[in-house]
Amino acid sequence: MDDQRTRAGRPRNPALDRAILSAAARQLGELGYARMSLESVAAAAGTTVPSLRRRYQNKAGLAAAGQVAEAHQAAAANLADSAATYDAAESDSTSAVHRVAGS
Q1: pTM of the entire structure?
Q2: Mean pLDDT of the chain, nearest integer
């Protein structure tokens, strides 16, 4: 069943979701799991601890989600870099073919 249809109330703010995950990933990297807290993540994301608890069952769930989000961002950036490299190589090879062909 679609989770969005069963959830009452207003829809979640995707920008806030991203801010929470970004703050969690940043704090994990800077402070480590032991020193990261829901309070500090909430403050950094501009929200409240109850808002975090509506999204994540506990600190471990938030930390895992932050790491997954960070991995997805890194993969997307690598994919974009690969696409740009491919486009540049294709353009260079096309230019070389035209030079050799005398076009």
Answers
A1: 0.66
A2: 82
